Structures are given as C-alpha cells and as structure tokens.
Amino acid sequence: MAGELALIAVSAMLVNNFVLARFLGICPFLGVSRRMESAVGMSMAVMFVMTVASLVTWLVQRLVLTPFGLDYLRTVTFILVIASLVQLVEMVVQKTSPVLYQALGIFLPLITTNCAILGVALLVQQKAYGFLQTLTFAVAASAGFGLALVLLAGLRESLALARVPRAFQGNAIVLVTAGILSLAFMGFSGLVRG
Amino acid sequence: MEATTPSRPVPLAAEPTAVPAPAPPGAVPARPAFTTADLTADFTRGLWKENGVFKQMLGLCPTLAVTTTAVGGLAMGLATAAVILASNASVSLVRGAIPSSVRIPAFIVIIAAFVTVVDLAMNAFTHELHKTLGLFIPLIVVNCIVLGRADAFASKRPLPRALADGLGVGVGFTLALLALGVVREMLGFGTVFGTHVLPGAYPPFLLFVLPPGAFIALGLMLAAINRGQARMGA
Predict the structure, then answer these.
(1) C-alpha B144: how far from chain center
(2) Count of domains for chain A
(3) Containing structural domain, residue A175
(4) Which of A9, B19, B154, B160 is 20 to 30 A from B169 via CA?
C-alpha cells in the first residue's frame, strides 16, 4: 500500500508533472511566474484548493453521482463544486487568518479557472482511485505544480537580466525556457514505469 | 469559414454604446442597435487582433496538449469553437435576467452544459478522436477564452453581435491550433494530416511531438510573429 502511494506521488509530481508533461494549469504557470513571491503564493493556494477540491469531488462522485446514475453530469457538478469551494475558502481564510488572506487572497479567484484543479478531479475518477490514493495524488500533483512554477519563476528572474533577442522578448523566450525545463523533467521518466 | 458580411464598403458608424438605452414605448428607435459594420468588426477582431492563443496567451492548456497532430488541433479547435458560439448566444439571450453578482457561476453552468453536450456527442460520433483528446474535452469548461468572451462581450451585446464575436474567436482559436498542429506534426513526423510532405531524407525530429516540443514550437512561432510584425511596423 505504502509502495503504491509512493509510486503515485513520484509519478504525479515528477514523471507526469502536471504542468510540464500534462499541460494542466499553463495559464497561472505563465501568468504569475514573473516574480518569485507571487509564484510561491500561487503554489500555496493551489496546493490547498487542489487537495480540498479533489477530496470533495471524490465524495460527491461516490455519494451522489454514482448512486443516482448521474455520471453524465460530472463536468457540470465538479466545476460548480470547485467554484463554490474556492469562494468558501476565500471567505473562511479572510475571516480566520488575515495574514494568510493577504498572501493568498488575490490568487484564490483565479484558481476557479485553473484547469489543473478540475483536471485532478477528473483524472482521479478516470483512474478509479480510493480515498487515500486521491489524497496522495492531489498533494503530489499540486507539489509538482508548485515545483514547476517556482523553478520557472527563478529562471524568469534571471532572464530579466539577460539580453534576449528582440523577437524573443516577452512570452516567446518564456515558452522556450519552459520547453527546456520540460525537457529536463523528461529525465525523470526512467524513474517509474506507468 | 467566411465573413458574415461581404467586405463591400459600409458607412462607418460611431461605436454604439454597450447597451442601447431603452426606447420609450411606441417610439421608433433612431438607429438600429448595431450595423453590419459592427458585425464584421466583431467577427474579424477574434481572428487575429485579439486571437486568444497568439495575442492573449489564453487557453494554452489544450493548445499545447492536443496539437501533436494537425487532426488533433483541428478537432479541439472546432469543439471549442462550437462551445464558444453556443455559450455566447445563450449568455447574450439571458443577459438581462442574471444579476451581476452571480453572473460568473451562471455563465460557468451554461458553458459546462454545452461542454457536456459536445463531450457526449463526440464520444458517440467520433469515438477515436474523443479518446485522443481525452481529458481536454471536459476541460473546455475552464478554457479562459470561453468564459472571457461570455463575460466581457456576450453579456453586454445583442444576439447577432455575440454570434459574430463567437464565430470570430472560435475560428481564430481553431486556426491557431491547426497552425501549431501542422508545424509540430510536420517537424515531428514529417507528415501533415497523415500524408508525407517532407522528403524521406528528413529525419523526423521527435522532440516536437513530445511535451517540450509544444512549448518550444509555440515559443518559436511567437518569435516569428514578433519579427514579422516588427518588419511590417518598421
């Protein structure tokens, strides 16, 4: 059991990294990686929401959709659950921890349309994971997202000082950099089979 | 894929206000809420000037993920275009009825409904394609372009203009995905739509159909666009 969970974790975090191999969550990956601080804030917010959202959608699927044969409503239900969850998290954090809210506040609304969150919820169903596996998968996937985001933010801070050819300035060089980062992550693919 | 109106010279009207003021009952409106020039402008804007992929860097997850082949890019583009068109139309029709505080959840439900329709239809009629695109069909729901057009444009405009805008943005997105798919398939496999186009001596550069190639190919295309525009501007 522990071995299986470790396999899921390594696979979701490194081998099939959500951003660099599966292309989930590209918008925040490119959007908030300009500065290290915002990258760290976004990673924390995603990690929090992704873990909670995947567990809640797992419960919704198990307790509502499957018993009533409503599988075809999965997309609608999941996105609604995620949207309301993000709203709820925002309200709770605002009330209970002003410090945390200041750090994460502006990132929370953006997370609703982060496809990594819905992606995790749907992938968990595709792979028919149990509760513990879902928890592991979500934590590892969001850690992988955070890792990629922080790495790119570090690279972009250095890039800001580099002399970039004029045609490549702006998003072009960031995409090529992300490509090289993705190439580096392919080195992990020998680590786990499957 | 043709413009909604032929490009004959149309008298340029001043940009109309977002929502025409309600006319007093019985009064004849001074001028229509929109002109054919508006419709043409709405359609062409999405094609290039506000192209989601190349200009706004939106909707990049499906853009990068499914463009390993030209067919994948084209299919994903058309599926997304269908959702944009349908959601733009619906949002425009119900725009008076939704309070602005709950508009985003309402739009998301509308979009999710159409995505489910497309998902089920593709599974039924184009099963192989559906398997290739996989996860990214339900993920059209969180494509920022779809929600962006619904909120920024369709929720404030009459139906014909919302349709013209949806068509333009949809076609622009499809063309962008098709272009990236063609480039990656050509460089990665030496084929386009499965037909060999490069001479046999060309060794397929497999990198371009692997995940890193998606980032690099799009980055190179953006650089080419920047250079082309700098040339034309200078």
Answers:
(1) 10
(2) 1
(3) 2-186
(4) B19
CB B148 within 8 Å of CB B58: yes
Give the C-alpha separation, A172 to B173, whole Å.
18
Residue for token pair 């996105």: A79
For the stretch A53-73, pLDDT in tens is 999 999 999 999 999 999 999
| Measured distance CA(A188)–CA(A182) in Å, rounded | 10
* Residue A191 placed within a domain: no
The residue extents of the domains of chain B are 50-233
Instruction: Please name which of B95, B106, B88, B104 lies closest in space to residue B162, comparing C-alpha atoms.
Output: B88
Structure tokens at B174: 């499809």
The verdict on A73 touching B (C-beta cutoff 8 Å) is yes
Q: Could you tell me if residue A192 is inside a domain?
A: no
**Chain position carrying tokens 């605002």:** A94
Residue with tokens 């063309």: B175
Residues in B 64-103 with any Cβ partner in A closer than 8 A: 64-65
Q: Which one of A73, A115, A171 has the shortest CB-CB distance to B57?
A: A171
Q: Which of residues 79-98 of A touch B (CB under 8 A)?
A: 79-80, 83-84
Whether the CB of B209 is below 8 Å from some CB of chain A: the reply is no
**Is residue A32 domain-resident?**
yes
Cα–Cα distance for residue pair B98/B91, rounded to 1 Å? 9
Cα A17 to Cα A104: distance, rounded to the nearest angstrom: 23
pTM for the whole thing?
A: 0.88
Determine phi and psi for B9, rounding to 5 degrees: -60, 125
User: What number is the ipTM of this complex?
Assistant: 0.91
Residue A193 lies in a domain: no
DSSP code of A12? Answer: I
Number of residues in chain A:
194
